[in-house]
Amino acid sequence: MDQTTSLSAARLAVLVEGFDRSPAYAGLADALRELIGDGRIGYGTRLPSERDLTEALGVSRTTVTRAYAVLRDSAYAEARQGAGTFTRLPGGRIRALDRALWPSDVGNGVIDLVCAAATAPPGIAAVYAEAAADLPAHLGGHGYFPAGMPDLQAAIAATYDARGLPTAPEQIIVTPGALAATAVVGSALAGPRDRVLVESPTYPNAVQALRAGGGRIATIALDPYGWDLDAVAATLARHRPRLVSAMPDFHNPTGLVMGEADRERYAGLLAGTDAVAVVDEAHYLLPLDGDAGAGTPFAAHAPESICVGSASKSIWGGLRLGWIRAPHALVDRLTRARVGLDLGVPVLEQLVLTRLLTGDLDAVVRGQRARLREQRDAMTDALAEHLPDWEFRMPGGGMVLWCHLPRAGATALSTEAERHGVLLAPGPSFAPAGGLDRYLRLPYAIAAPQLVEAVRRIADAWAVVTSGRVGLPTPPSGTEPVLVA
Question: pTM of the full predicted structure?
Answer without folding.
Answer: 0.77
